[in-house]
Description:
heterodimer; A: alpha/beta; Rossmann fold; 5-stranded parallel β-sheet; 4-stranded parallel β-sheet; 23 helices; 13 strands; B: alpha/beta; 3 domains; 6-stranded parallel β-sheet; about 40% helix; about 15% strand
Amino acid sequence: MLKDKIKAAFDEPACPTNRAKAAGERAKGCSKPLTPGAAAGGCAYDGAKISLQPITDAAHLVHGPLACEGNSWDNRGSGSSGSDIWRRSFTTDLTELDIVTGTGEKKLYKAIREISTRFKPAAVFVYSTCVTALIGDDIDAVCKHASAKYGLPVIPVHSPGFAGSKNLGNKLAGNALLDHVIGTHQPDDVSPTDVVILGEFNLAGEFWMVKPLLDKLGIRVRTCVPGDARYLDVAAAHTANVTMVVCSTALIGLARRMEERWGIPYFEGSFYGITDTSESLRRLARLLVERGAPADLVERTEALIAAEEARAWARLEPYRARLAGKRVLLNTGGVKSWSIVAALMELGMEFVGTSVKKSTVEDKMRVQILLREEAHAFEGMAPRDLYAQLKGGDADIMLSGGRTQFIALKARVPWLDINQERIHPYAGYDGTVELVRQIDISISNPVWDEVRAPAPWDTEGRLTDRHVSHFTMDDDADAADPTFAARHRRKFANSRVDNTDPEYLAHHRKKFAGHAADDIGDD
Amino acid sequence: MTDALSKVTHTQKAATVNPLKSSQPLGAALAFLGVANAMPLFHGTQGCTSFALVLIGRHYKEVIPIQTTAMDEVAAILGGADHLEEAILNLKKRTNPALIGVCTTALVETRGEDFAGELKLIHERRGNELAGTEIVLAQTPDFAGSIEEGWSKATTAIIEGVVPKGETRVSPERINILPGSHLTVADLEAIRDTVEAFGLEPTILPDISGSLDGKVAERWIPTSNGGVAVEDIRTMGGAVHTIAIGEQMRRPAEALKARTKVPYTLFDTLTGLAATDRFVALLAEISGRPVPARVRRARAQLEDAMLDGHFHFGGKRVAIAAEPDLLYAMARFFAGLGAEVSCAVSASGASPILEAVPAADVVVGDLDDFETRAEGCDLLVTHSHGRQASERLGIPLMHIGFPIFDRLGAQHRHTALYEGTRDLVFEVANIVQAHHVPRTPAELDPFRDHGDTHVGRPQTAAH
């Protein structure tokens, strides 16, 4: 039952928010009731889909009417080093007739057949949606049957949009992996340094900036879920020795259950920022050594960290002078805010605010320690307030997700995408340098000065004093010229300007004393 | 401008490889084609004419009226005056043009004849037969200059040949527009619309928007079909002001001012927000009218385009090869949106505007110089002959300038004023996005070279 699955997802002792609650509060789960008319953000289906879809060699089939998939596909930039099946969009695109006559299950079954024969995916993930959940399509049965018939794993993911928030969807996706995928494949190359990374999406390929660091230390990433993941590797995740959770709000529950079931210790870490990348490498090494990896791993890790940190700071040094004192507004919950805050503050940048909407209690505490002033951390801001703050010139740049992009741009304030739609990789040491480089590129773009300069006319289109007159009337030499043309030009000129203003006239005469009016621009 | 002057260098190669420039008489012919019922006449051999004619035809996809004095071996040795006379009389008889624009070529200029004197004699002898046809001379040898100079000289020749000296009665609503050769048909139409929106009457010289705009006529017209009327040119001295666009138009603007005392304002570019602001403000001042709402709306749209588009310019390295005024306009455009003009190649070295190009170095050279210097750039910006460099370097090409023969509609692209700048922003952003190549694990490997993370390629197109 969906209700049980949701309840299971909310029962999360590893979640610090959950732990902090009283028993009665905890029983209610963590779903915050949404406010009709004032809600923003994705649904549970959205959350489940984005948590699993970057599994690259699987087909992701959405069972529902068009909007759920048709309005959302191909909107994320995860990198794949192999198959591109995951980028194809599959949906049963239910029609009114399908829904009324209840032929949805049959359509789903046929869709799985078509996809499995034509595209030969390693597996098919089937996502339920509001409509198919409401009318009671039994996707478990269809998946089970199709799996047996066509000889490939078909995994039902129960996450209809009405179930709750995007965050809940993340958790439901994790549970689907636990129920149907992880532990179903036994690899023959298990080693004591195998690790699993959870909640890393390989956006813009950024995990490829981190993986070579682990390779160099002899740490093997069995699977990184979901970024650039292959189905069979995910299925073998239970053979790893350590789990690192990158995006804790998404998949921490999965990590805890993997510990319960297979005894794999986990920790929360981040690959954003220099110190956090180093700290994550350290913890991976230490936990692996505790689990039987060679003891020299710790020393080798420290040596690597020392070398890479030195290199990164050397590359960041040129930016210090350019960026010191720049004021950043960080408006995201999608990445580890504090990881970024720490990295940028070390370069002398200032934070005028950071959103902690999706952050855990621990995240919030770390942000507050870093920022010292509680006022800077906000839970969320209405677009109008955000616009007002930006327009008021409080920040030199806003780092956020695409949702608030245009608020910054309309306020004529530099903006950098640091969420899922972004195009630049920011992970690891190189990624931190890239982030700083992109901030510099954005802030130093001359476009800001140009678009901030008001037009030389008012709202009615009448010239203001910002317009320096360049229209040349013939100068004093013409004063004695009795020709009609000269007289006419003088008369015409006088009729257009306020010739009683001595300052204007003085300026006018001086400007065109040279007579040869040429480039009127000075920019 | 507060920018430091850029260093202008000339390459020292003996062999030009993949020429960037087109010839000077071709530029003059284009300018003459901007006069209604005109016929450019190349004083040279047949080939000079046919190559220019074919190349202009490839760009505009039109039949191009250009005639030749068809110099033969005897004329090459003894002089071409009678060929010139015969050609003019034949053209008058067969096509009765309002204006014949004589463009000299390298052959006759190498001989060094007195063309002006010859034309004077022809006029004296044949004045009656040639009544109703203006004959002007642009001395445009192929061994010097390029399109810009030819265009500038032809425009100057038209002014000096057609506009009478002395001041005339001024019409306060009339203004002259002297557009450079780098503006398109669409640009001229937009300039006209904008000027007219202020209640002003523009005389555009040359006006290729009337003649090279690509239209199907109901009858065969042997001369230029459209353009500025000779009668309108004759009365340009009655305008209240002249607006010249591009450094190349300083010479004709000066010539007009010297003859008629009409003052002028020279705009080094009309591409970009600030440049258009100045242009529009000048029109508002001349006309005494407020800026119309639709012009103000176009400005707001450009601002938004710049905000949305700047992501695709910031940090990008751009290579531009063009004639001086276009090179300057495009370099200013790219630099203004945060791109680095890391390679700037000019087709000719005479223009003072080159020193103002926002690039460290400006090389006067060819497309081979362009290709060797453009390596590692994100975008090539030049005319169709840049496609070889684009293929070999694997860098996308944005088509600008002349000739553009492997794309349709070059004459209808907007590149000036608010709309034109907006369209250019979108075009660049779309090229950048269309050529996005996702980064591979090898490219992102932190140990690959321990160099900079920037590999000179845009990464993705997700916006």
